[in-house]
């Protein structure tokens, strides 16, 4: 009897053991605490955006029907769209539906907000990912090169380039890039969008100019930040002095020791900059004619399309919260004391 019952109980015992180990994981508890703390943040962001949109002058029904609409027609559309309901009632209905994943329908097109997000978000994600890739791929090696020889030729050139890059707004840089590379040199397309499934090469060509216009400011900022942090690590930390005393080569000390600790500041800034980066895509997508979520947001604001605006704001807030959660998890990977709640000093 015991020999036949053992195989049946083994999977249950293994599953129970795996569950208990997972529940006792410091990293899992750390993530759960951060997710619970994000709930009031999401609630506050959606509520404030709802207040702002309802405080703007004008009327959504009037915008949809045009200036020639009669008061009777405007009232009928308000009743049909639920705009005649009190503010708190409309917000509660929206929040209840958003929790179950239903963001309503666009007031202007009647299309489901979920389908709009599903079609436009991948476009914006690809643009943001390429901008981040460009900025980080160039920022890290340039910062290492500058920190290797402070005040050298590379460091001085990097400082001049960074100051110039930080002084140019993304939308101004976008226009300059279009004029140089699309109008004068005719090597890259100025506007338009090609899905990656249709042609990956053309898709990348259409994304290069908008991605560079967003990434340049990030590249300059990340380079100066990481360079300053690397110099601080190299000049004043005991572990660096110990590595020097052991005869470790300078580049190895810089890349294997100082860089690991300097990544804390870079991770923090990257997570915090995600909201700014998403805001930059709103203007850049409109300039380059990219059908992303930023372009959709501008159209929704023009049309006073509150369900679309609320859905986009909610998704943006979730993305920023998840980015900060990912930053916290990366902190715990770089320094295990964080996930155990121990002091780092």
Keywords:
single chain, 345 residues, mainly alpha, MetI-like fold, 13 helices, globular, disordered N terminus
Give an account of the 3D structure:
- The protein is mainly α and 345 residues long.
- The protein has helices spanning 2-23, 26-55, 60-65, 71-81, 87-99, 113-148, 153-166, 170-184, 200-236, 238-245, 250-288, 293-302, 306-334.
- Helix 6 (113-148) crosses helix 9 and helix 12 (293-302) runs antiparallel to helix 13 (306-334).
- The longest helix has 39 residues, at 250-288.
- The protein is globular, with a radius of gyration of 26 Å.
**C-alpha-based Rg, rounded:** 26 Å
CATH topology of the domain at 113-302: MetI-like fold
Instruction: Report the CATH superfamily of the domain at 113-302.
Output: MetI-like
User: Count of DSSP E strands?
Assistant: 0
What share of residues are in beta strands?
under 5%
The largest sheet is:
none
Tally of individual helices: 13
Task: Decide which structural class fits the backbone.
Answer: mainly alpha
> What is the end-to-end distance?
58 Å
Q: Considering DSSP H and I runs of 4 or more, what fraction of the residues is helical?
A: over 70%
User: Stretches where pLDDT falls below 50 for ≥5 residues?
Assistant: 1-6
How are helices and strands ordered from N to C? HHHHHHHHHHHHH
What's the CATH architecture of the domain at 113-302?
Answer: Orthogonal Bundle
Query: What is the molecular shape?
Result: globular
Average pLDDT metric:
79
């Amino acid at each position: 009897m015991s020999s036949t019952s053992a195989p049946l109980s083994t999977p249950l015992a293994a599953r129970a053991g795996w569950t208990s180990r997972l529940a006792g994981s410091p990293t899992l508890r750390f993530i759960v605490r951060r997710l619970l703390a994000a709930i009031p943040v999401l609630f506050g962001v959606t509520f404030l955006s709802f207040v702002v949109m309802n405080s703007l002058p004008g009327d959504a029904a009037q915008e949809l029907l045009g200036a020639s609409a009669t008061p009777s027609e405007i009232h009928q559309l308000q009743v049909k769209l639920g705009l005649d309901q009190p503010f708190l009632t409309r917000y509660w209905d929206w929040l209840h539906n958003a929790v179950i994943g239903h963001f309503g329908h666009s007031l202007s097109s009647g299309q489901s907000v979920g389908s709009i997000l599903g079609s436009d978000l991948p476009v914006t994600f690809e643009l943001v990912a390429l901008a981040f890739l460009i900025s980080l791929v160039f920022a890290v090696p340039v910062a290492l090169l500058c920190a290797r020889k402070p005040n050298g030729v590379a460091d001085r050139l990097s400082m001049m380039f960074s100051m110039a890059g930080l002084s140019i707004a993304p939308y101004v840089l976008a226009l300059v890039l279009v004029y140089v590379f699309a109008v004068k040199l005719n090597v890259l397309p100025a506007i338009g969008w090609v899905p990656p499934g249709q042609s990956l090469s053309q898709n990348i060509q259409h994304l290069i100019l908008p991605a560079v216009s967003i990434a340049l400011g990030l590249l300059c900022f990340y380079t100066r930040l990481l360079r300053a942090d690397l110099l601080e690590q190299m000049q004043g930390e005991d572990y660096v002095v110990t590595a020097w005393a052991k005869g470790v080569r300078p580049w190895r000390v810089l890349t294997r020791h100082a860089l690991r600790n300097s990544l804390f500041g870079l991770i923090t800034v990257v997570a915090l900059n995600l909201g700014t980066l998403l805001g930059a895509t709103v203007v850049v997508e409109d300039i380059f004619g990219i059908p992303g979520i930023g372009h959709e947001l501008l159209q929704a604001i023009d049309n006073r399309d509150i369900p679309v605006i609320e859905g986009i704001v909610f998704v943006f807030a979730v993305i920023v919260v998840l980015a900060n959660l990912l930053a916290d998890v990366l902190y715990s990977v770089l320094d295990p004391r964080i996930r155990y709640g121990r002091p780092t000093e």
